[in-house]
Specification:
heterodimer, A: alpha+beta, seven-stranded mixed beta sheet, two-stranded antiparallel ribbon, about 20% strand, B: alpha+beta, nine-stranded mixed beta sheet, globular
Chain lengths: ~210, ~550
């Protein structure tokens, strides 16, 4: 079964919120997961990799700080917090290569790097642990990748984007990963109560008129 | 150079326009989405056909209606059901309906119809595909349905008064588009000229639904009355619209789409500003306005509601109509910026219902400077969502103050200011509004209180220095990220924020619903509670076989009997 990218986005947002992230970060996760699907990656499976690590309860340990010109954290970095940090400040790129150490689910960085490239109107290359991807913000050139954790990530201005990935309009996520996202998304839904059913939404009048 | 399009009267201030009471008083206008669609279909000479109508005497079966535009076809696939009265509910939590629909991209094959027949009747519990553009359902108005079937079956016409007062035989209870339940994403069709405007897919679906419902009621009458059955008089059929029954889903929509909502409001405000800037009106322009006003009075006379809030608003509107009559009898509409004078007068004399009615009506004579704004009403600005983290905190503060200055000194811990919380129930994911201090819902709160969140972010920013880039703040305080995004969006979307408290003890969600529905082109808003409203769509519109460039636009205003 395939899903629309809108369904992917909505599910990713609720799941990320359900995992304990702030709404604004959940919005980023939603766009990110959708973008990965459009580029032919299994976005929901990659997001599930991250959310299974349950960083949100002690997020401060997974937020990057710059030490010796390298972004690093107390423990493995959250790619959502790291990704927003790099896309929020894209001019960091003009000061040279951005180095990051120890990142969970590093493919989630790709959409943020693309946002950085788009803002700077440049081609940007991200590489980690033998994998490398080039993007101008719209197109992406890279192979498939199953790396779920990177020791060392580098982001730098790159060359021309060639052999771009085919853009997809549907997603066919891994069934278990999709189920996992839906399960934690469920944490954002209030339990059904009779009072809520009666008062929360209705007209209070009959519809048989 | 468009001589009329130079404006000297500025657009109205968002602080005035974006108050909930005013948003809850908006009326349809030339830019409404239904009128955009009917104008286009007539101008482009769309053709319509009914390739299937396979419905039995019990009213069960399916039908297909195809609309063929210059480049593409779209087909409504309709399923008719026999619904027991005890299952008839307009709520999201319903599980069965009188009729269910999908809008198919193209012309469906027998296999497509077979696939849809297994899924569309289930609505949220089924799956549709990238070939489907929308999914919807409708319930009968039980009384009017029975009246029309019985009368026709007895060889008589239905009573027009009953039709005017109910307005529809069926009301849709949800029209899902944009990738919901497996349907195609909006991106699939966003670049097609004929459906690039907001909600054009959904408006087309409802337009074709109305034809199906007219045909179905005739079919059911004939099944009952046999040879003696009367054919429904086309003049009466015209006043059968399609109802819509809407709960809280639309309120989150306008908060969650600030750029889109801004574009709707700003297009209308720009139109109002252009017309107010007209120095002198021609006689035929004045005539077109007075004609639309006279006909809108007829429409308002048919507007029924039993809800105390709307009864009060309707009484005020009817008093406004008398005041407008007096103004028009004593003032010319030709010289000295006539429309601006009229709007100025209304601001100090009329209720918000009357003010917004006039603001919509003055656009009617000026299609040539108004209608082109329709192309600005979609949201094509994806980059607006991307945060500029290099913005200094002093600028972020200023942006927050710009929309929410009024909210910063409110006591947000006082129960009356945060009495409500928006949440999603696990019961079919129905959006709901609850009492924060009486129900266990606060942990599930959706981010639908931008004013409260703005005040919280503003306070958190207090200890940060002016020239620090906001990215640093967001890294340590990610809970304010959505608020900073909204504040920055406001630079390109000045009408994107509601200037009122959406969680106060006295918030009326129907104001938010009406704002959205007025842009669809809805009329006869009939609140059923403070969070539920029924409306009428397409009443008065020409059916496909009647549609032409002369009747494609002003159908919303009833012709007055000579």
């Amino acid at each position: 079964m395939t899903f629309s990218l809108n369904e992917v986005e909505a599910t990713a947002k609720r799941a990320t919120r359900g995992a304990g992230y702030a709404w604004g970060v959940a919005e980023e996760a939603a766009k990110t997961t959708r973008w990965l699907c459009a580029q032919g990656f299994d976005g929901p499976a990659i997001l599930a990799q991250l959310l299974q690590r349950e960083f949100a309860s002690c997020l401060e340990r997974h937020i990057p700080t710059v030490r010796n010109e390298k972004m690093t954290g107390e423990q493995d970095l959250c790619p959502l917090m790291t990704g927003t940090a790099i896309s929020d400040s894209p001019t960091a790129l003009s000061q040279g290569t951005v180095s990051i150490s120890n990142v969970a689910a590093p493919l989630l960085l790709l959409p943020f790097v693309a946002a950085m490239a788009k803002k700077q109107k440049k081609t940007v290359e991200i590489s980690f642990d033998g994998f490398s991807a080039l993007t101008d913000g719209v197109h992406l050139s890279c192979g498939d990748c199953r790396i779920d954790r990177a020791d060392h990530v580098e982001i730098a201005e790159g060359g021309h984007v060639q052999a771009t990935r085919a853009v997809q309009s549907r997603a066919a996520p891994n069934v278990e990963a999709w189920q996992f996202l839906n399960t934690i998304a469920h944490r954002t839904y209030a339990p059904a109560t009779e009072e809520s059913r009666l008062l929360g939404a209705g007209s209070g009048l009959s519809d048989n008129d | 150079m468009e001589p009329h399009a130079q404006t000297e009267i500025a657009r109205r201030d968002p602080a005035t326009v974006m108050r909930l009471s005013r948003l809850g008083s908006l009326h349809q206008c030339r830019l409404s989405f239904m009128r955009q669609l009917t104008r286009r279909m007539a101008e482009e000479n769309w053709s319509f056909s009914r390739p299937a109508f396979e419905i039995d005497d019990n009213g069960i079966g399916h039908a297909v209606y195809t609309a063929q535009g210059p480049d593409r076809a779209y087909s409504l696939v309709a399923f008719a059901h026999d619904l027991p009265a005890d299952q008839r509910s307009d709520r999201v939590i319903a599980e069965a309906w009188d009729a269910t629909f999908a809008l198919f991209d193209g012309v469906p094959t027998a296999e497509d119809i077979d696939r849809l027949s297994q899924n569309v009747p289930l609505q949220e519990a089924g799956r549709v595909s990238e070939s489907e553009l929308s999914l919807s359902r409708a319930n009968r108005s039980v009384r009017l349905w029975a009246h029309v079937v019985d009368r026709l079956a007895a060889g008589q016409q239905p009573d027009p008064e009953q039709i005017y007062q109910v307005g529809y035989l069926m009301r849709t209870t949800a029209v899902y588009g944009s990738g919901k339940f497996g349907a195609a994403d909006r991106e699939k069709t966003a670049d097609r000229t004929e459906v690039s405007g907001p909600f054009q897919i959904e408006m087309l679906s409802v337009y074709l639904t109305r034809v199906f419902v007219r045909d179905l009621v005739q079919h059911m009458a004939r099944a009952k009355g046999g040879d003696q059955t009367a054919d429904l008089d086309p003049q009466i059929a015209r006043w059968l619209g399609i109802g819509n029954s809407t709960g809280l889903g639309m309120a989150p929509f306008i908060v969650n789409h600030p750029v889109l909502f801004n574009n709707w409001i700003m297009a209308r405000e720009e139109a109002i500003s252009r017309v107010r800037s007209v120095e002198t009106a021609k006689v035929d322009e004045v005539h077109r306005f007075t004609d639309a006003f006279a006909r809108s009075k007829q429409s308002i006379a048919w507007w029924r509601s039993e809800h105390p809030i709307q009864l009060e608003k309707l009484a005020a509107l009817k008093a406004d109509l008398k005041q407008i009559d007096t103004y028009l009898a004593n003032n010319d509409l030709v010289q000295d910026h006539p429309w601006n004078r009229l709007i100025h007068w209304s601001e100090s004399t009329l209720s918000e219902e009357g003010q917004e009615l006039l603001a919509s009506l003055i656009l009617e004579p000026y299609g040539e400077i108004v209608d082109g704004l329709a192309c600005c009403m979609s949201d094509t600005n994806a980059t607006a969502q991307v945060i500029d983290g290099e913005m200094p905190i002093s600028d972020v503060r200023a942006l927050i103050r710009h929309s929410f200055d009024w909210a910063l000194n409110l006591d947000w811990s006082a129960a009356k200011n945060c009495a409500r919380a928006w949440y999603v129930s696990e019961e079919k994911l129905e959006p709901r509004l609850g009492e924060r201090f009486e129900e266990p819902i606060a942990d599930y709160e959706q981010p639908l209180a931008p004013a409260r969140d703005a005040a919280m972010a503003y306070e958190a920013l207090h200890e940060w220095s002016d020239d620090t880039p906001v990215a640093e703040f967001l890294l340590s305080r990610p809970e304010h990220r959505h608020t900073v995004r909204r504040a920055q969006i406001n630079r390109v979307a000045p009408y994107g924020e509601i200037h009122d408290n959406t969680i106060s003890a006295d918030v009326k969600p129907i104001d938010m619903l009406r704002a959205k529905l007025s842009f669809f082109g809805a009329t006869h808003f009939d609140p059923r509670s403070d969070r539920w409203v029924r409306i009428c769509m397409y009443a008065g519109a020409p059916y496909p076989e009647e549609l032409n460039t002369r009747n494609a636009d002003l159908w919303v205003y009833p012709e007055i009997a000579q």
